[in-house]
Fold this sequence. Notes:
Blueprint: E1 2-4, H1 11-28, E2 32-35, H2 38-44, E3 48-51, H3 58-65, E4 70-75, H4 78-84, E5 91-94, H5 111-120, E6 125-127, H6 136-141, H7 151-154, H8 159-177
Parallel strand pairs: 1-2, 2-3, 3-4, 4-5, 5-6
Amino acid sequence: xxxxxxxxxxxxxxxxxxxxxxxxxxxxxxxxxxxxxxxxxxxxxxxxxxxxxxxxxxxxxxxxxxxxxxxxxxxxxxxxxxxxxxxxxxxxxxxxxxxxxxxxxxxxxxxxxxxxxxxxxxxxxxxxxxxxxxxxxxxxxxxxxxxxxxxxxxxxxxxxxxxxxxxxxxxxxxxxxx
Length: 178
């Protein structure tokens, strides 16, 4: 899944970028999710939207995009995760587990939150926050099976090789945790 997260673009520029990314994703058979904006996700023909605690409520995003859309929802601690279980969402994100430049003002949740999510969530959850080949082992040991990587790819000299390294690290961690 590819999520377009552009916080600084005006609506028209974001829509143009979303249409471009959506087209590339469709050509590759990859689901495309737009961050924060269910209205622009609908306009761009995205497969869904990911909303945060301060964005459009998930129930409104579901009404805008319909039952077939993928709706994701950010959580940052047990109370938010517990509340998300009753929302009309397909997955949640948990984190950031470690400090991240994507959200420099948000304190990390730590591995204990992943253990909580693994024990309590009826929804699939994705881990956010400094996901790299070096950090996935402890995350898998805490119960994580799905990961969000941003900087690992965007700052890589060779994103394709970075993807292989991350996938290999996840596979190793999963194989040793069984």
